[in-house]
Amino acid sequence: MARVLPWLTLAATLLLTTIKTSTASSMAKPGCRETCGNLTIPYPFGIGPGCYYTNGFDVSCEDNRTFMHNSSSLMEIYNISLIGGQARVSTLIATNCYKNGTTTDGWASATTAELFTISNKANKLTAVGCNTLAFLGGYNEYTAGAGCFSMCPNKQSVDDSGQCSGMGCCQTSIAPSLTSFNMTFDNRYNNSVVLEFNPCSYAFVAEQDSFRFEPFYLEGDKLTEKFKGGVPAVLDWVAGRESCDEAIKDRTSYACISNNSQCVKSPNATGYLCNCKDGFEGNPYLADGCQDINECQKPDHYKCFGICSNTIGGYNCSCPSGTHSIDPKISICNPHTASEKAKLTKLFIGISSCAILLLTCIFALLIECQKKRLMKEKERFFQQNGGLLLYEQIRSKQVDTVRIFTTEELEQATNNFHSSREIGRGSYGTVYKGILKDNRVVAIKRSKIMNMVQKDDFVQEMIILSQINHRNVVKLLGCCLEVEVPMLVYEFMPKGTLFELIHVTYRSPSISLDARLRIAQESAEALAYLHSSASPPIIHGDVKSPNILLGDNYIAKITDFGASRMLPKDEIQFMTMVQGTLGYLDPEYLQERQLTEKSDVYSFGVVLLELITRKTAIYSDGTEEKKSLASSFLLALKESRLQSILDRNILGVGMELLQEVAQLAKCCLSMKGEERPLMSEVAEKLRFIRRTWRKQLTENASEETECLLENPSNYDPSSTGRHGSLMALDLEIGR
Ligand SMILES: *[C@@H]1O[C@H](CO)[C@@H](O)[C@H](O)[C@H]1NC(C)=O
Ligand SMILES: *[C@@H]1O[C@H](CO)[C@@H](O)[C@H](O)[C@H]1NC(C)=O
Ligand SMILES: *[C@@H]1O[C@H](CO)[C@@H](O)[C@H](O)[C@H]1NC(C)=O
Ligand SMILES: *[C@@H]1O[C@H](CO)[C@@H](O)[C@H](O)[C@H]1NC(C)=O
Ligand SMILES: *[C@@H]1O[C@H](CO)[C@@H](O)[C@H](O)[C@H]1NC(C)=O
Ligand SMILES: *[C@@H]1O[C@H](CO)[C@@H](O)[C@H](O)[C@H]1NC(C)=O
Ligand SMILES: *[C@@H]1O[C@H](CO)[C@@H](O)[C@H](O)[C@H]1NC(C)=O
Ligand SMILES: *[C@@H]1O[C@H](CO)[C@@H](O)[C@H](O)[C@H]1NC(C)=O
Ligand SMILES: *[C@@H]1O[C@H](CO)[C@@H](O)[C@H](O)[C@H]1NC(C)=O
Ligand SMILES: *[C@H]1O[C@H](CO)[C@@H](O)[C@H](O)[C@H]1NC(C)=O
Question: From which domain of life does this come (predicted)?
Fold first, then answer.
């Protein structure tokens, strides 16, 4: 069956029944029929001469159905959209049936009117059949084509999901902007093989969304029955093919003639369309077509909670006088009057700024208080620690050697008391290495809570200590009183303690006898000085090898004296102290709890023993049992086996001297204080022993190491600079 429908230019049966609807909202040209059946026909479409814009928009109305005139096939119009420039129309169906051994040569073609194109976005080439290959030959500017193949060997294989999946139905895209097409079938695929359930094949261009495939379409001529008028398809139309710029220039053919209309580019096709401007509605293709929207009458679309007044192209929504709008656009009116509102706003602003100001003040005050408290605390500690007293004393006695450091200074010097700066830690507290602003290296002693008897005493001590100026006494540089427990700042001793030198053997495998004697002598001199320089004498109270420090060239300097002033008061503290100085403590003191200069002498005796035996004050010689160095030594001396207890490294030459040192030590370790020599005597004796030793060394020069004899004649007991270097050398050799 072939249906050839040529260009139809049917003169419409002019229904001059001018339905007087010349209202402003009329979509048709004034004096023209506006509807056909249920469909409103808006200008540029129109029925009859003079009622349409241009040829393609010429439509006819038959039996309440609308048809396009100037189109190659009689297309029924189902729907017209002015805004998108689209129309839903019916299209032809090409049918190919197998009958009597032959196939009808079915084809269908269509040509759209000018300004109309077939929408390729909305439409698809659709073929229905079970051995069907359909072609579409189309034309836009060029020749275009599409093909669609569907196959289903039996009834069961037909896809019944409604989809055009290729089994009973297929769909394929078409080229854009087609103005004409011709659908044909390839007869090599015909319905002979599927005749019993599908005698015919169909092809058509259809709106994809409106066509749903049903398997029964394959039977007989069910499909053509269902879509008698044709399958819906979508056409794009434009008011002109030119762009808006071009269209506006050519005023004579410009379609957007309404006031308040505007030209827009067609969204789906090439060319332009007309729209009403915002705030207007109606038909932009008609003079006076775009009418102002009375927004106030459409509260569903245009919100206004106040008093609505329509304006041309918009509306004015305001609040009754005396009320204030929260949202100026839609006027949600606030019960507060404007002035009240303003007042409230002012009040609010006032209150909030006051609050902010107040908070800021409070905050600043808190910070200030904190600062003040800190300052007060510091001051309290300063006073508690006798800061003022110290100041006075410093002024009156013209002490210029001791400095009062601030906490900040010391924190800065020790990198906030960083652990990497720790150089010693004990029951007394921690010693840090500090570097002052002037690059001076110092040792800062931060004690744990100690039993400070009286602030006066402490200050007194400070004054005394600061006045002590002996080369073998570690110099006190200053203190910091702003903390609970004062911190003391000493000169820094780079070579550690005597304890480390003689007992941490890997550090100094061998120390010469001369070096040992020198250290002993220097320490003795320092103690003698302490005992004699001031009245009452300064008792060290804690003489032990860890309290003898070594400076450059291993010069010995004693530190931590004045313990007598800070003696423990209660039993627990006493026991702690005893434990700390076990092996050094004067037995008399243990009984009488009275420290004297002779207590220092006893302790020094133990240090002397450490030097010649290289054993710690409390030691164990392989066996579990801990022995007191002093008692072991005295026992060995009594049993005349001194050599057994002495350091093997110094045995050999100078045995008589060692005997003398041993005798000296024995005297120092006398049980009764009065039997012990004075510290000055000890120093004297050591000086003598040392001189003898050096003489012997010179005599034995040929056998001894050359370097040890470097400038032996230059000896001067009061100068240790030389000996310092000797000592260093000895140590070097020892390694
Ligand atoms: C018009 O619409 C009514 C109901 O909306 C419908 O019953 C009638 O069939 C329609 N007429 C045409 C010609 O489409
Ligand atoms: C067209 O529709 C109108 C009303 O909608 C009806 O009165 C008229 O009979 C219809 N005409 C035809 C031919 O159906
Ligand atoms: C136009 O098409 C839409 C859906 O695409 C439909 O809802 C509407 O009823 C149609 N209008 C007419 C007049 O056919
Ligand atoms: C073919 O069709 C003709 C009429 O068009 C009919 O008379 C004839 O019987 C048919 N032949 C067969 C084999 O069906
Ligand atoms: C129908 O198809 C068969 C094979 O599929 C072929 O032999 C036959 O010639 C075709 N008939 C026509 C009329 O093309
Ligand atoms: C045509 O344009 C309109 C408006 O942009 C849009 O809503 C519609 O989906 C388009 N039509 C097609 C088939 O893409
Ligand atoms: C459509 O194609 C068929 C087969 O090629 C041809 O016979 C027919 O003339 C074509 N129709 C048009 C309008 O071009
Ligand atoms: C349309 O605009 C023109 C000029 O811009 C004016 O003269 C005419 O009065 C307007 N028409 C209406 C109905 O507003
Ligand atoms: C809206 O109305 C108010 C009061 O009625 C007026 O002051 C204002 O100017 C109007 N705005 C516009 C855009 O017409
Ligand atoms: C439309 O119809 C007019 C008048 O009947 C004719 O001159 C014109 O060529 C036709 N246009 C098309 C595209 O068919």
Answer: Eukaryota
Buried b / exposed e over 29-45, threshold 16 CB at 10 Å, is beebbbbbeebebbbbb
Query: 648: which residues sit within 8 A by CB, 6+ positions away?
Result: none
What ligand has the least distance to the C-alpha of 39? Answer: 3
Pocket test for ligand 10, best of 10, 55, 60, 179 (most atoms within 8 A of CB): 55
Q: DSSP alpha helices (H): ranges in 385-451?
A: 387-397, 407-413
- 39-96 tens-digit pLDDT: 999 989 999 888 999 888 999 998 888 988 766 666 889 999 998 899 999 988 999 9
What is the CA 412 to chain-centroid distance, rounded? Answer: 30
pLDDT digits (tens, 9 = 90+) for 125-136: 999 999 999 999
Closest CA to 319 of 337, 330, 327, 331: 331
User: Residue 11 — very low, low, confident or very high, per pLDDT cuts 50/70/90?
Assistant: very low
Residue 293: which residues within 8 A CB-CB, separation 6 or more?
279, 280, 281, 302
Task: Name the token pair of 26.
Answer: 């009329």
Do residues 318 and 307 make contact, with C-beta atoms less than 8 angstroms apart? yes
CATH architecture for segment(s) 293-345: Ribbon (2.10)
Q: How far apart, in whole angstroms, are the C-alpha atoms of residue 108 and residue 345?
A: 76
Element (H, E) at 582: none
Domains 293-345 and 384-491 alike in fold: no
Among protein residues, the one with the nearest Cα to ligand 1's atom 6 is 38
CA of 277 to the centre of ligand 8 (A): 15
Per the CB < 8 A criterion, the answer to whether 561 and 495 are in contact is no
pTM, entire model:
0.51
Residue 9 pLDDT level (bands cut at 50, 70, 90)? very low
Q: What is the phi/psi pair of residue 105, to 5°?
A: -85, 75
Q: What is the pLDDT of residues 582-620, one digit of tens each?
A: 788 888 888 887 788 898 999 999 999 999 998 888 888
Which residue in 79, 30, 84, 85 sits closest to 59, CA to CA?
Answer: 79
Q: Residue range 222-231: average pLDDT? A: 86
Cβ 192 under 6 angstroms from ligand 5: yes
Q: What is the DSSP string of 668-688?
A: HT-SSGGGSPPHHHHHHHHHH
Distance CA 442, CA 445 (A): 10
Q: Give me the phi and psi of 656, to 5 degrees please.
A: -65, -35
Long-range contacts at 648-656 (CB < 8 A, ≥ 24 apart): 649/510, 649/511, 649/614, 650/512, 650/513, 650/516, 650/612, 653/696, 653/700, 654/513, 654/693, 654/696
Please state, in angstroms and rounded to a whole number, the distance separating the CA atoms of residues 621 and 341: 96
- Residue 255 burial by CB count (10 A; 0-12/13-18/19+): exposed, middle or buried? buried
- Give the count of beta carbons closer than 10 Å to the beta carbon of residue 708: 18
Q: Which two tokens stand for residue 47?
A: 């029925």
Per-residue pLDDT for 523 more than 90? yes
Active-site residue (options: 542, 560, 600, 647): 542
Ligand nearest to the CA of residue 313, numbered in listed order: 9
Domain boundaries, given as residue ranges, for the chain: 87-234, 243-289, 293-345, 384-491, 498-696
Among the four given CATH numbers 3.40.309.10, 3.40.190.10, 3.90.960.10, 3.30.200.20, the one describing domain 384-491: 3.30.200.20
498-696 CATH pick, 2.40.70.10, 1.20.210.10, 1.10.510.10, 1.10.10.10: 1.10.510.10
Helix axes 655-668, 513-533, angle to 10 degrees: 30
Task: Tell me the binding residues for ATP.
Answer: 445
CA–CA dist 612, 650 (Å, integer): 8
